[in-house]
Every structure is written in C-alpha cells, then in structure tokens.
Amino acid sequence: MNSMSNITITNHPLIQHKLSILRDKNTASKEFRALISEIAMLMCYEATRDLELKEVDVETPIATAHVKKLSGKKLAIIPILRAGLGMVDGMTALIPSARVGHIGLYRDPDTLQPVEYYCKLPHDIEERDVIVVDPMCATGGSAIDAIMMIKKRGPKNIKFVCTIAAPEGLKALQEAHPDVDIYCAAQDDCLNEHGYIVPGLGDAGDRIFGTK
Ligand code: PRP
Ligand code: URA
C-alpha cells in the first residue's frame, strides 16, 4: 500500500495481478465481472483498515479470550451506475450488513460532463459511513458529482474506491473533495482525446455488461 495525502494506491500483488488480466482486451465479460468483483473485495479490505473495534470477552472451549470486534459502525456502499455495480458484490461479501444506495450518472460523450439519471440512497445515510465505488476515475467528474449528491444528505464520512484513475481525475477529485479518502489500484498515464484513461481498460460498463 502506498499513501500520498488522502490517496492510497492499493498495490497488493493479488490486486495488480488481477488488474493485469482485467486490462487485457481479450478478457471476456464473464471473467471481467468475476475479476472486478474480486478486486473490489481486496480493495474493501484495504479501505476498511480504520474501522473501529471494541473489546469484548468470548468464551472459547478452553478459556475466556479478550478479543476485538467491530464496534457496530453502520456502512453504506454506493455504486455509480452502471460500472460501479460490478464492485458491489465484492464489497458486500466482506460487509454483509452494509446498505446499498445507487447513483446513476453517465458521461456525455461530447462534453464529458456527468449527467444524473437516478439517485436512491439509504434513508438513514446521515448515520452511516459511505464507500462510493466506480471502477474508473477519468476526468473525475462522475465521482465529484456523485459525492456532491451524497454530501447533501450528510453522511458521517465518505471514501471513494476505484480500480484505475487518471492523474487528472485524482487531482480534480482531491481538489473538489479534500475530505474524501481515495483508494485506487493503479494511477495510469493520462486521458486520451475522448476522455478515456490511457492505457486503462477501455469502457468499464461495456466490458462488464457486454454492451459493445
Ligand atoms: C464511466 C465510469 C465512470 C465514468 C468516469 O461511466 O464508470 O462513472 O465513466 O469518467 P469521468 O471520471 O470522466 O466522469 P460511464 O459514464 O461510461 O457510464 P456507464 O458506467 O453507464 O458505462
Ligand atoms: N470511463 C470508462 O469506462 N473508461 C475510461 O477509460 C474512462 C471513462
């Protein structure tokens, strides 16, 4: 793990290995979906390192053990549709009690600006810590807008987890939301003239859902 201010690059060997297969243009949707879910699970492990614990006593068959358990913090996972959906199962596998909200945004192909089409968040989000998930952070526009929408509902804390980010997107997101901790598996080189991450993995939504 490599941290710079509020950005953590989760460069665990298993994540890097899975990411290398994910990037390959010959990886088909079925395998792509499985990999993105596995990467999300591994990133969830990193992004929840600071969860609060409480001390409890547990009776083992032998003696009393003084152990630590999660203090019962309430969490919400919020994918940015569509591609963020691919990360939900991996996250909820590790945090089964998390609520799941949804934010629908698509990037206008000409302006690259995010366009909102759906928002359904847990009713008690103000009592929750939120993890926003989206495989890609290119210009950062989608993440910035999604986090703005969530902040209006006053959650306790927000983290953003993505697999691949462009330097432009990370900078914009950091500037717009300096209070949000960002986790990404790789920081790539740049954006191309169509706003795609280079080398990236192409269109994450299309590759997850097989729509191209
Ligand atoms: C992709 C991706 C992000 C966004 C990143 O979604 O999943 O949400 O682009 O780009 P940005 O950082 O420049 O905003 P897209 O808009 O293609 O929608 P989709 O998930 O429905 O395919
Ligand atoms: N959205 C994607 O799915 N891929 C990119 O490279 C950029 C935005």
Globular, elongated, flat, extended or rod-shaped: what is the shape? globular
Q: Identify low-pLDDT runs.
A: none
Over all CA atoms, what is the radius of gyration? 18 Å
Total beta-strand segments: 14
The largest β sheet comes out as: 10 strands, mixed
What is the helical fraction, as a range of percent?
Answer: 25-40%
Terminal Cα span: 34 Å
Structural class: alpha/beta
Give me the strand/helix succession: EEHHEEEHEEEEEHEHEEEH
Q: Strand percentage, roughly?
A: 25-35%
Bound ligand species: 1-O-pyrophosphono-5-O-phosphono-alpha-D-ribofuranose, uracil
Whole-number average pLDDT? 95
| Alpha plus pi helix count | 6
Structure overview:
- This protein starts with a strand and ends with a helix.
- It is an alpha/beta fold.
- It has helices at residues 13-23, 29-47, 88-94, 141-151, 167-176, 204-209, and strands at residues 2-4, 7-9, 53-59, 64-70, 75-81, 99-100, 102-107, 114-120, 129-133, 136-137, 157-165, 181-187, 190-191, 197-198.
- It is built from 6 helices and 14 strands.
- The protein is globular.
- The strands form 3 sheets. Strands 1, 2, 5, 6, 7, 8, 9, 10, 11 and 12 form a 10-stranded mixed sheet that branches. It has a two-stranded antiparallel sheet with strand order 3-4. A two-stranded antiparallel sheet has the order 13-14.
- Helix 1 packs antiparallel against helix 2 and helix 2 crosses helix 3 (88-94).
- 1-O-pyrophosphono-5-O-phosphono-alpha-D-ribofuranose (PRP) is lined by residues 80-83, 106-107, 112, 114, 134-142, 169, 195, 203-205.
